[in-house]
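input
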Amino acid sequence: MSKPSLFRIWVSAARFRTLPLSVAGIVVGNALAVDQNSFSWGLFGCTLLTAVAFQILSNFANDYGDGIKGTDNEQRIGPKRVLQQQLLSHKALFRGIILTAIISLGLAVTTILLAFGADQLANSLLFLGLALAAIVAAYKYTAGTGAYGYHAMGDVFVFLFFGFLAVCGAYYVQNKALNASVWWMASALGFLSVGVLNLNNMRDIENDTAVGKKTVAAILGLNAAKKYHALLLLAGIICLSIGLIMVANSYWQYLPLLVIIPLGIQMVKTTGVKKHADFDALLKPLAITTFMLSLMVFATQYSF
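output
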């Protein structure tokens, strides 16, 4: 079998299938601000591009970190990574990480300047700090010494970055303020995003344990991790419901609650999984459900 082109290798490393989940929080944050007079479609686009760049950076760094540490080995159940397959050298992948970090920072600075200009220095510095923190967090998830993904902190960081930073940050750059409904919706996206990570970690429990990678799922064990997964989805549903109650002005705006159906199906299927490999088939449906939720929130909040 011939080696794929360099372009296809980098596309594979970027893991485009992870991008819908990465922008779901951005879409929800903008949805909550879309009817404000100050809403900017340009800012919406910039925040989306920044989130995509951060996710690709995280994917490169995850491939690099797990590859260097030997976590991505023949025993790993999920899709094979580019470093694992020796399609790229670790030096080439590291250069890709540096370049993507620079692009991510450039997009973040553009977003900050568009949102706050030179008149709101405190806000500009705050968001610049958050952007730098996001870059460091993307790299330190599995790469370098003390990688937090190896010490059961991945769930916390996913909740914070995919939930609070994505939703609250996107809303704040549009509206320059926050309210309670934004925090509830951010929590909903955070819990569902952690659910995606937990599925990934339940799939990889055996290999992660063998190589010394501590995840919440590995620490809990499979049965308890399944219960934890159900609690994550239930918490997401509760937070979503409260958030919608606070912002809905019509029955139409409760439409996003339809995600309860696929989330309920997900809970049942997760409980019945016997083989670790079977969790892989549940990853995409939960990620897509979360992304579709964000689109439904946007559609129902936007006044056509």
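quick obs: The two ends are 51 Å apart (CA to CA).
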